[in-house]
Amino acid sequence: MEDGMVVERTSGTPQGGVISPVLANLFLRYVFDDYMVKEFPAIPWARYADDGITHYVSLKKAEYLLEKLQERCTMYGLELNLEKTKIVHCKDDDRGSGHENRSFDFLGYTFRPRKAKNKYGGHFTSFLPAISE
């Protein structure tokens, strides 16, 4: 533990252990990746270790997918961290206002609406990444 106390492990692998990321990726390949391909083939997604992103067309579909992913994780003894799991509206000039969450961090980048310049020199709002704080 952080305070130096030793506690016997009864399940799982140690945080930072050499085998931990390999086992997690193998497990999540089945629990998440294969599930998304089979059950939601039209929804784009990306996963790196235990962080993932899915894309949706509507809030209703995003809420349905979140519910299904929670059920899937529960079936395999996993939990989504609901403090870190959120539905984000990717606002840009083509998508008006929407859900209250308008940014997210993924792999050291913050994705949010940002000012961009088109090839003609005009400015517009696009949903883009930049290095996170």
Commentary on this structure:
- The structure is a single chain.
- The chain is 28% helix and 22% strand.
- Strands 3-4-5 form a 3-stranded antiparallel beta sheet, with no helix packed on it. Strands 1-2 form a two-stranded antiparallel sheet.
- Strand 1 and strand 2 form a beta hairpin.
- The protein is an alpha+beta fold and 133 residues long.
- The mean pLDDT is 87.
- The protein is globular, with a radius of gyration of 18 Å.
- The chain has 2 helices and 5 strands.
Which properties best describe this structure?
133 residues, alpha+beta, three-stranded antiparallel beta sheet, two-stranded antiparallel sheet, 28% helix, globular
Percent helix range: 25-40%
Q: Major sheet: size, sense and barrel closure?
A: 3 strands, antiparallel
Uncertain parts: none
In one word, what is the shape? Answer: globular
Order of SSEs, N→C? HEEHEEE
Counting H and I runs of at least 4 residues, what is the number of helices?
2
Separation of the first and last Cα atoms: 28 Å
CA-atom Rg in angstroms: 18 Å
Percent strand: 15-25%
Give, in spatial order, the strands making up the sheet with the most strands. 3-4-5
Structural class: alpha+beta
Mean pLDDT: 87
Question: What is the count of β-strands?
Answer: 5
